[in-house]
């Protein structure tokens, strides 16, 4: 149905950049954010629920259903990223506590309900470890009939962040990521290769921080908590990466990224490669296929390029217009 906003559901570990992503999803006229589910990742799941509710209230979207999900990965222990996201998981900005409680149902139940109730197939946007999504796919596989595609922030073609080769969301729950990749629905991987490139210039962050509009001001404060520039004038130092919000840009404006359908596999073996997304970019089969035959592998639309200016413009026009 052209002209109708796209139904989307986000699964987050809010998270400074998850908060930036929520602000965009709430405000973009082409998106209809139907629910948000929470999972342990950047901080503990109760902190994620609190942060998510607060962000939605600040954005004037306090009626979107929010549900609490998994408190730990399928096999791994919780390994929060407080050194990046602060003690409260959202930059320790001193934001007010939310005024409402989460939904009375768990994340998997809310995901199932909202996906099956949607009049149009839903696009899922996980920006967190994939525990909730894996539990959903294993508990209610029938949901795939009403999922358009899953655009997840996670993985890396080249270099990792949690380890030299593994990106945090996949590393935090590798088994869950493997379940997602083999879900049998179209999957787009918005990995570190593009994630790290989308940076909002310091002057724009400076402007957002001085906005009278609470959502835009919050975006500015969050971006300032994701510094990328070092040295130079004070305004340049305020530059901040959009992070997870880039995955929402890629849904709102698919032309902002260039993807290629490639075989991707999550390394589940213990040791230095655990959590790596092994992306096969070879132009032709190699000796392993010649001698052992082809193995079945998930084909994933992998984001290889991003139009940084286009993405930043979309964010500022949507969130920073206030
Ligand atoms: C991912 O991990 C978290 O720190 C961010 O929110 C993002 O989803 C990047 O590796
Ligand atoms: Ca995240």
Tell me how many strands there are.
Answer: 11
Q: Which ligands does the model contain, each kind named once?
A: beta-D-ribofuranose, calcium ion
The sequence of SSEs as H and E is EHEHEHHEHEHHEHEHHHEHEEHEH
Strand order of the largest sheet: 3-2-1-4-5-6-11-9-10
For the largest beta-sheet, the strand count, sense and barrel status come to: 9 strands, mixed
CATH superfamily caption: Ribonucleoside hydrolase-like
Work out the radius of gyration.
Answer: 19 Å
- CA distance, first residue to last residue: 29 Å
Structural class: alpha/beta
Approximate helicity band: 25-40%
Here the CATH topology equals Inosine-uridine Nucleoside N-ribohydrolase, Chain A
Q: What is the CATH architecture term?
A: Alpha-Beta Complex
Principal-axis shape: globular
The total count of helices amounts to 14
Task: Name the CATH class.
Answer: Alpha Beta
Number of domains: 1
Approximate strand percentage: 15-25%
What is the typical, i.e. mean, pLDDT? Answer: 94
Poorly predicted ranges: none
Q: In a few lines, what is going on in this structure?
A:
The chain is α/β, with parallel strands linked by helices. The chain has helices at 16-27, 45-58, 82-85, 107-117, 131-139, 168-172, 174-181, 192-195, 202-209, 214-224, 234-237, 245-252, 287-292, 308-319; strands spanning 6-12, 31-38, 66-68, 122-126, 147-153, 187-190, 199-200, 240-241, 257-266, 277-279, 298-306. Helix 5 (131-139) links the parallel strand 4 and strand 5 (147-153).
Structure description:
- By secondary structure, the chain is of the alpha/beta class.
- It has one domain (6-284, 296-319): Inosine-uridine Nucleoside N-ribohydrolase, Chain A, CATH 3.90.245.10.
- It has helices at residues 16-27, 45-58, 82-85, 107-117, 131-139, 168-172, 174-181, 192-195, 202-209, 214-224, 234-237, 245-252, 287-292, 308-319, and strands spanning 6-12, 31-38, 66-68, 122-126, 147-153, 187-190, 199-200, 240-241, 257-266, 277-279, 298-306.
- The strands form two sheets. A nine-stranded mixed β-sheet has the order 3-2-1-4-5-6-11-9-10, with helices on both faces.
- The radius of gyration is 19 Å and the shape is globular.
- The two termini are 29 Å apart.
- Bound molecules: beta-D-ribofuranose (BDR) and calcium ion (CA).
- Beta-D-ribofuranose binds at residues 15, 17-18, 42, 81, 84, 127-128, 153, 161, 167-169, 243-244.
